Amino acid sequence: MSTSKKAYLFMLLITVVFIVYVLYANFVHDPQATAFLGHKETLKRALHTEVWLKVMNVHVIFACMAMLSGAANFSTVILKKYRQFHRMNGYFYLLSVVIVDVTSGYMAPYATGGKASSMGFNLMNIVWLVMTIAAIVKIKKKQVNQHRKWMTRSYAFVFTNLTIHAITALLHNGIGLTYTTSYTVAVYGSIICLMIAAEIVIRTVFRKPSTTMI
Questions:
Q1: Cβ neighbours of 123 (radius 10 Å)
Q2: Is 164 helix (H, G, I), strand (E, B) or coil?
Q3: To the nearest whole number, what is the mean pLDDT of the chain?
Q4: Cβ neighbours around 104 below 10 Å, total
Q5: Cα separations in angstroms, 182 against 165, 166, 172, 185, 208
Q6: Which of 56, 185, 205, 208 is nearest to 113 (CA)?
Q7: Which DSSP state fits 141?
Q8: How confident is the model over 99-156, as pLDDT tens digits?
Q9: Could you give the C-alpha distances from 159 to 63, 162, 163, 166, in angstroms and in order?
Q10: pLDDT tens digits, residue range 116-130?
């Protein structure tokens, strides 16, 4: 089995497991987000819980859709045998990213950690959207390898939530920082970690140019 196929299957496993966990946590275990909202103690504006929860649900659903559609489009089987689906699915991925960004933009002012975290999320939203648009532009110009690189950078950001909570847990439970400080550092730390992870994948798994036209 090739390195790229092993990497893809590993990514697919993480994606599926994480989606199952997120859906269970948000819609079964704690649908009112009681534990998460419990950390929002110093908000400077009133939080309309019912509206926030509805926006959060949309955010979660389309974040999962972005994970699935993005993962599907990295499949060489789909790329070679179902090119039309690959193209349409790519636009669905873009739509999912836009919806995730818009809902995140609504929730950003209520982020744990206040303005510092809010600015981090807004920065992340801009970076993610720019990378996704760059991938679309590259394939419109028939630059397949550049398209794949920008899609790799974009797709890395579907793991934002996972990375933020991993870093938060490390800083809060491992080092002993306050949850709010840990979360704020994790927001910015996740941007750096995900960008580095994407470049590592590009330089290892995708080091050979693609020979498949889209």
A1: 14
A2: helix
A3: 89
A4: 20
A5: 9, 10, 6, 5, 38
A6: 185
A7: T
A8: 999 999 999 888 888 889 999 999 999 999 999 999 999 999 999 999 999 999 999 9
A9: 9, 5, 6, 11
A10: 999 999 999 999 999
Q: What is the pLDDT of residue 48?
A: 78
171 with 133: CB under 8 angstroms? no
C-alpha distance from residue 4 to each of 8, 82, 185, 192, 207 (Å): 6, 20, 32, 23, 10
| Dihedral over alpha carbons 190, 196, 200, 206 (to 10 degrees) | 80
The one-letter amino acid code at 155 reads Y
Q: What angle in degrees, to the nearest 10, is found between the helix axes of 144-156 and 49-73?
A: 150
Residue 99 CB neighbour total at 10 angstroms: 17
Alpha-carbon dihedral 122, 127, 132, 138, rounded to 10 degrees: 150
The CA-based dihedral angle spanning residues 105, 50, 186, 125, taken in that order and rounded to the nearest 10 degrees = -20
- Report residue 28 as tokens: 């079964």
DSSP states along 84-121: HHHHHHHHHHHHHHHHHHHHHHHHGGG-TTTHHHHHHH
Kindly indicate the confidence band of residue 209, based on its pLDDT and cuts at 50, 70 and 90: low
Question: Which residues does 8 contact at the CB level (< 8 Å), separation at least 6?
Answer: 74, 75
Q: Do 153 and 195 form a contact (C-beta atoms < 8 A)? A: yes
